Amino acid sequence: MELSKRLSAVAALVNSCNTMADIGTDHGYIPIYLVEQKKVHRAIAMDIGKGPLQRAKEHVKLHGLDEYIELRLSDGARELIKGEAEEVVLAGMGGRLMMKIIEDSKELFHDLHGFVVQPQSEYGFVRHFLEDSGFAILKEDMVEEDGKYYPMMRVSSGTMNLTIDCFYEYGKYLLTEKNQVLQEYLVKEYKNLKKIKNELQQGTTPRQKQRLVEVEQMINLNQEALGYFS
User: Fold this and answer.
1) Can you give the pTM of this predicted structure?
2) Which residues pair with 69 in a beta bridge?
3) pLDDT digits (tens, 9 = 90+) for 174-206
4) Where do the DSSP E strands lie in the chain?
5) Is 122 in contact with 97 (CB distance < 8 Å)?
6) Cα–Cα distance measured from residue 55 to residue 36, given in angstroms and rounded to the nearest whole number
7) Strand-pair partners of 21
């Protein structure tokens, strides 16, 4: 199984273990890859949709891994029993949905050796949520694929205090380790924010003025983050 750049980076953050669970598995690519690479002995591929689960079932059968990968219909992690898996992956979903899944099964997530999250949005909110919920980010990575940027994190039960806004928004490890993909993203984001600012400066409505203030704050945060690369 060959993975996309995004899924390959997600899989790299999973530690070797006996059993992992992939929540929102879609095609089942990550469990198939991890079992084939012998990084995990068995996997549970979970999805809320019958269609995606059927596609995953077909891929698992095609790779001859029926004995090693169980398919399970589940709303989030609700059908996963505490202690059944050591590692979990949550990838390719919105930040708010991801936070809800973790919140709904918080005891289970605290019991894991670790888990990997790859939110598609609201990265700052996700990092705040993890900190407030008694989790610690251990590693971070970011990749670019087809013009889109994907940050991801390895997390476990623990404490952290990110302290400054740009660590929440862009990732402490990505910044302090000078992740080159993040730098590329920040440069592009700055150009886009400057363009938006120039357009808003022509506006006269209260909403446009308020939005201008917000964009200026975002530019300041962006510049603070870019300072880590100078």
Assistant:
1) 0.94
2) 43
3) 999 999 999 999 999 999 999 999 999 988 899
4) 17-23, 40-47, 69-73, 87-93, 114-119, 135-145, 148-157
5) no
6) 18
7) 44, 88
